[in-house]
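Reopening this ticket.

The earlier resolution said the output was attached, but the attachment link was broken on my side. Pasting everything inline this time so it's all in one place.
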Amino acid sequence: MFTTSRRPTPLAALPQTTPVLLDRIVLRFTKPVDLGLPEPRASLPDGHPILPLLRSLATEGLCDQPPDSPMPPRIKQRVNAWVDVPAGGGVRVGGELIFSFISRIGWALNANSKLWCNGMELLRSRLPDGGDSLGLSLDGATNWIGPADDNWRALGSTQADDVAYALCSVWTKVRSGLSLARRVADPTVALRDVELCHDLDHSSAIATVVALHGSYPEGSRHVVETFYPEVQSNTLSSHGAGVRWAMDGSGELALKAYAKCRRLLRLEVAASKGRGVSKLIEAVPQHTNRDVVLLQQPLSSLLRRVMAGGAVHVDALLGHVVETRNDDSLWADLLEGLAPLLALRGTPTRNRPGAPVTAATLALARDTLTDLLLLGCARPLTSAGKLVPRGNPVRDALDAMTRPHGPLVFRRGYRRNFVLRPKFAGARHRLSQALLTELRCAPTVALAAE
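Inline output:
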């Protein structure tokens, strides 16, 4: 049993290795499970060799009763089971069992069968009232227990065991339901999807996430900003905010930050489709195997390795959040830093030494400044779609702004190469309101007053 703490945890005071907890977990069977049943024949008493097995699973309370009508050669059966955990509380385990006839082995449980559960909902079930007093989060979910405190590290050390117990218990029931088959081996499974989280007590969670929009943590490839209606108390009076950073080209490994509640900032790492999970595990040296037999001890060990890899990424994201400021006190510093770009002004004429910039260059400068203020990043392109070369006044201004004390960082190979430093996030929002109106109203005049 545990209780949540309402004492705020200062961001800078958190330990170097940030404790994370398992949120969503999806297991995928990696090999078919041979059931040892014959090929379906019309002369069979039940008409289909799988029908008695499905009825047995329904009797165990794992699946719905199968239909009596003729069944297709490939059958999907949904799993929905509640599991009580010995340490306290419980969790609902879902899944999808796929049965099909494979010519080389006969009837089998397909390799794409899945089981899933939510580790945060398991922890929530242990609260004195089952977490009812917490209510729903801004996104209408119950997968949260409050801000991280000193108990989170201890919770993480036991949560992997509890989640593994729940998933393996359902498989034990499935195997019992399949006892009519002549042989059922324990399957080999891999993590298909996993989400790990760290929740911070923050007085302005939404404002902090908005400040993170347009920022790029180290190693991120691109960013997606999201807003969603607040569903708590069935109101649509305000909106939550989120931001997602892809850590690879496919987005199969991603970092997220979003306002779980008004005073709760969630930092999350999400890995999907197997390859993302592999990259997560590779963050921990000497632990790269993501396939295990569906037994409690091997699965618990795999989940612990994933949590260790997730902690590395969440720790880096936490550092980025600490660096990102959601106040606007640095607006004057940012305005000074943008001076090389703002200096491109004057009446458009042909480009020649000592002459003002051309209309095309002035338009490019205006668009680049707009991107920096709205998105926090920019990639000025030529008419051929390539990054403008050195010697172009806009490129030279941006290069000047990437010097050690400048407001920009140049990241080679990114979709948008010039990225605003995180500490200027709040100042960027303030300047965007002041300058963008002028840019829209006077697109061909000076970008800044003399």
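Reporter confirms the inline version is readable. Residues 1-16, 41-45, 230-239, 441-450 have pLDDT under 50 and may be disordered. The chain has two domains: 11-323, 331-441.
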